[in-house]
Amino acid sequence: PCLFKMILFLIATSLTFITESRNFLQLPDIDCSKTPTFLVLLVTSSHGQNKARMAIRQTWGKHRLVAGNRIVTYFLLGTTMNQNDQTGIIAESQKYRDIIQKDFIDTYYNLTLKTMMGIEWVHKFCHQSRFVMKTDSDMFVNIFYLTELLLRKNRSTGFFTGFLKMNELPIRKINSKWYVSKDEYPGSTYPPFCSGTGYVFSTDVASQIYNISESVPFIKLEDVFIGLCLAKLKINLEELHSEQTFFSDRVEFSLCLFKKIVTCHYVQPYELLIYWNALERSMDEKCPDV
Ligand SMILES: *[C@@H]1O[C@H](CO)[C@@H](O)[C@H](O)[C@H]1NC(C)=O
Ligand SMILES: *[C@@H]1O[C@H](CO)[C@@H](O)[C@H](O)[C@H]1NC(C)=O
Ligand SMILES: *[C@@H]1O[C@H](CO)[C@@H](O)[C@H](O)[C@H]1NC(C)=O
To answer: Do the beta carbons of residue 80 and residue 6 sit within 8 Å?
Structure first.
């Protein structure tokens, strides 16, 4: 009877896995139930950005322990009509085991689907982790400082932080990249949200967003969509630190500055390698207090 129960259990768990893997074309190689994970970094990426993915894998996205806390990085991708790109991604996924992919066309205006795929993956495969960060492939992320601040903050549930946008208005200029029609979003203001360049939340929030997302009107701006979910869930945005640490713009590199920021934007792969090497080489050097 014991063996029988065990077989039933095995069948049940593999069935769960099969149901949950449904629709995922590529999955990363991790068993979060067996590997305690502190922070999962989800990076939106597209097929042509191999250089950026390689640079991230060698820098802030390298899987490592920071003060004993495991940090892992996965790339979010959709599909493309280009067969070469598509086979390239399958090979890359088999080599690095760090790609999450579903079957939707990979375009800028499908970013909400891409982000929600990441949230779904966390909900189904890695709800045991403590924090999740969603960021982009042209970002610098100081995971050391982020870990230090998250540990200092010591929050476990209902936490959401990043570059806060508390009073944004929909852009109605038709030729803007962020144009949103009144049909798509009738409201005159957006709810508070965090810039999509980098936001961090406690993992329970992923399941809550996943759960409520079906009943939230779709908008192609992924960060606004997450803001709409948070408003419905009554989860407030919080600052991670009294100083600004998330930058949604470019920040000129200086070692002492980059030690005390979490994100900055518009970083080329070659710059990322240079900045990161400088940062790692100077880990023990002190900077003047600001
Ligand atoms: C988003 O993906 C879906 C599913 O593949 C596709 O039908 C749709 O055209 C895409 N939307 C855009 C704006 O590219
Ligand atoms: C973190 O918070 C928990 C309660 O949520 C508390 O038990 C623990 O002592 C706190 N740790 C630190 C380092 O403040
Ligand atoms: C999902 O939503 C249902 C109904 O709104 C609620 O009862 C349930 O607790 C929610 N689950 C999570 C994980 O938030």
So the answer is: no
209 CA → ligand 3 middle, Å: 10
Considering every ligand atom shown, identify the ligand nearest to the alpha carbon of residue 112 and give its number.
1
pLDDT for position 18: 67
* Res 234 pLDDT > 60: yes
Find out whether 142 and 60 touch, Cβ atoms under 8 Å. yes
Residue 3 has a pLDDT of 75
Instruction: Name the band, by pLDDT with cuts 50, 70 and 90, for residue 1.
Output: low
- pTM over 0.70? The answer is yes
For ligand 1, is residue 105 a contact (CB within 6 Å)?
A: yes
pLDDT at 290 over 60: no
4: CB partners within 8 A, 6+ apart: none
Is the CB of 208 inside a 6 Å radius of any atom of ligand 3? yes
What would the DSSP string read from start to end of 88-111? Answer: HHHHHHHHH--EEEEEEE--GGGH
- List the residue whose alpha carbon is closest to atom 13 of ligand 1: 109
Which letter does DSSP use for residue 171 in this model?
A: B
217: which DSSP letter? Answer: -
Ligand 3 pocket residue status of 207, Cβ below 6 Å: yes
CA of 101 to the centre of ligand 1 (A): 14
Give residue 239 CA to ligand 3 midpoint distance, Å: 26
Q: To which residue do tokens 């540990």 refer?
A: 151
| Burial group, residue 6, by CB count within 10 angstroms (0-12, 13-18, 19+) | exposed
- Cβ of 135 closer than 6 Å to ligand 3, yes or no, is no
Summarised one tens digit per residue, pLDDT across range 43-66 is 999 999 999 999 999 999 999 999
Contact 49, 137 (CB under 8 A): yes
How much is the CA Rg of the chain, to the nearest whole Å?
20
